[in-house]
Amino acid sequence: MQKFFRSAVSYAALSSAAILTVGAPSAAWAADEAAALEEVVVTAQKRETDLQKTPIAISVLGGEALKARRVQSLADLMDGSVPSLRITPFFSRSSAITVGIRGIVPFDANQPSRDAGVGVYLDGVYLGRSQGLGSALFDVERLEILKGPQGTLFGRNSTGGAVSIITRAPSGEFGLRQTAGLGNYNSHRAETHLDLPAWNDLAIKLDGVITRRDGTVENTLEGEEDFSKYDRRGFHLGAQWRPSDAVTARYDFDISKDITTPYYVQLVEKSATAPASAFAPLVQLQTDRAKAADIGVPQQDSVGDIWGHTLHLSWAPEGPYEVRAITSYRNVEQSQWDNGIGAHSGAFRPNAAFSRYSFASLRQDQFSQEVQLLGTFDNLNFEGGVFYYHENGDDDAWTPNTMMWNATGTAATRIPTLAAGAVTPFPDRASTAKADSIAVFGQATWTPPILDERLHLTGGARYTRDKKEGHLTKVNGALPVLNGVAGEILFDDSWNRLDPMVTVAFDATDNLHLYGRWGTAYRAGGANSRSISYRSFDPETVETFEGGLKAEFLEGRARVNLAAYKTRYQDIQIDFNAVNLGGSTRGTIETVNAAGRGDIEGFEADAFFAPVEGLTLSAAYAYTKGTLPPADNPFDAIPDLVPAYIVFTPENAWSLAADYERPLTDATLRLHLDANFADGYRSSSGVADLSDESAVVNARISITDIRLTDDGSLEVALWSRNLLNEAHLFYRGGLSAGFGRFGMFNEPRTYGIDATVRF
């Protein structure tokens, strides 16, 4: 670790030297102030601060950047626009997404009694489930990606970091934006954003979103839904009341429907040891991105219904204090109907049923209450508060087969009723879960009256008590059996945790800021609802050492932010699949805490450059290298340590972008191009094989500010995602000796035209 940090510090020192030795800008450069980069304001420390003076590694995508990349949901960030942030679906289900940062990527947080490793927040409200995270985004002001453990101020399950979604508040002035768009795969989009004039200190804002696209892989079974389809729609009401300068009350209601079909899972490799008889003649080897399924299967929409209420209260009287309260209630109901793997999950057997259809559903509701106290003095700032979170959830699943081979594998027919293709009665498994979390947190930054007040010392801590309980009510279609006794299995456990944090920051110059940071965080324990024993597992913890610098130079035209870190990762929650898929272990997964310590180290860089007025160049890079301790496979009678790997995390990932703006006669031309690259990574903690390298290019060209009336303007834009139609396997399964390997490809090129009017 010392060697690693010496290297990181040396690199930072060289970079600082290079920045500090840049000559004074020429008179021409200094005069062109319009080319300077804009200040970026973030709320990573519960108050508004300048990104460059905030001693945390943060990436920010503002509303314009999200529009330029055509990010309509978090799922669109799968392309690697933020190299440290990894977004992936839960297996083939686009109805639930997994979020990871810096190698902390839970493989299966798709259950009511398991938690994520990265906290996702909507206007300060923690979103407890991976289901619903792929729904359409409303009017987003910016997206903040906080890297590394955020165990003090954000706390709950933020071992890898936090993703904070900040939406635009009502402005109190009339404004209307209406967007309509069309694209390939029969896609269409409509967005309405209406700000109403304030009345009696009350401002109201309405947002409506519809975005739809047909599937990109044809399902060849007549009358069935294609793969990779989505239909996302939602409505948001925001109301803000400001009876005085000291009091603000903001209420938000949002409701969304997220309708999707899964990714297509295709056979990409045949095992050299598999006999020819293992493959039915209808089964095709598809080594490139498929346009059509080799065997069509029954497939219907997965439907997510998400809604919630949030109330923000702020009281900031004259003086150094501000009191805030955030109260929220949210509800998710998600069906997950996944027949994406079709005929590619096992060897052919004459006249046998196949095409395992996963019927899963989850229902969850949560209530959270947070109260914050902020103080600002001459040499001391502090943030503190209390947090309460309560969650109820239940899930069930059923996995009937839906197709049947003929005797020779030259034809397949639909099984008339699902029950006829089921191994067990409905449901295969079912569970309920409840969680309560209470936390007290505080953080203070002191600027001592020495060194021209360039030194800033921050300390903080968060005490958390998590309590969870649940009931496993069905296993393989019947009551669970534990120690020979049939009946519901109860899981009931609780944990206490103190997570401290220390930061030392130094303003070497007005434009060069250095920091060192140490902190811890933890992800709560739980129980695996896919288990037959429902035994609990303990929390996993991280401890991170980080050093970084943030610099601006060339009269504000250039900005470079660097960070290097070392993470100690302990009690890691590792999943094991049962080898035997028949009998009592059908579909069984057990979770254990790996003994020993894992290590993740990395380096990150963000750079921005505005060489001339109207042109901005940006680049981001992330290096992530980690090793995890082997874990004991609970399905082996003899203790067997199995290698474990960090998943969905490339060793090297980088992103480049260029934005150009040029005034025209009565209009403005805007061009955007971004390219995102990544090494291959492991798709499963127990599979050493890597996915493909990736290189995805997105582009947008628009003409804006076309005058319609004195107060109205028009924007017309052409866009494309994956402009070069690059194909790569983002998921590569393990190679089965008796059959082969399956995988999933990224989405093909999409393109379209959007038109927006503004008043």
What's the arrangement of secondary structure elements?
Layout: H1 2-20, H2 27-31, E1 41-42, E2 49-50, E3 58-62, H3 63-68, E4 85-90, E5 93-101, E6 118-122, E7 125-126, E8 140-147, E9 161-167, E10 175-183, E11 187-195, E12 202-213, E13 230-244, E14 247-260, E15 266-270, E16 302-315, E17 321-338, E18 353-356, E19 358-376, E20 380-398, E21 401-405, E22 412-414, E23 429-446, E24 455-474, E25 481-482, E26 485-486, E27 489-509, E28 512-523, E29 526-527, E30 536-537, E31 540-553, E32 558-570, E33 573-577, E34 589-593, E35 597-609, E36 615-627, E37 631-632, E38 641-642, E39 652-664, E40 667-678, E41 694-707, E42 713-721, E43 729-732, E44 740-745, E45 750-758
Parallel strand pairs: 6-9
Antiparallel strand pairs: 1-2, 3-8, 4-5, 6-7, 8-9, 10-11, 10-45, 11-12, 12-13, 13-14, 14-16, 15-44, 16-17, 17-19, 18-21, 19-20, 20-23, 21-22, 23-24, 24-27, 25-26, 27-28, 28-31, 29-30, 31-32, 32-35, 33-34, 35-36, 36-39, 37-38, 39-40, 40-41, 41-42, 42-45, 43-44
Features:
759 residues, Maltoporin, Chain A, 22-stranded antiparallel barrel, 3 helices, 45 strands, globular, disordered N terminus
Structure, explained:
The protein is mainly beta and 759 residues long. It has one domain (2-758): Maltoporin, Chain A. It has three helices and 45 strands. The chain has a 22-stranded antiparallel beta barrel. Strand 10 and strand 11 form a beta hairpin. It is globular. The relative contact order is 0.14. The model is unreliable at 1-31 and 580-585 (pLDDT under 50).
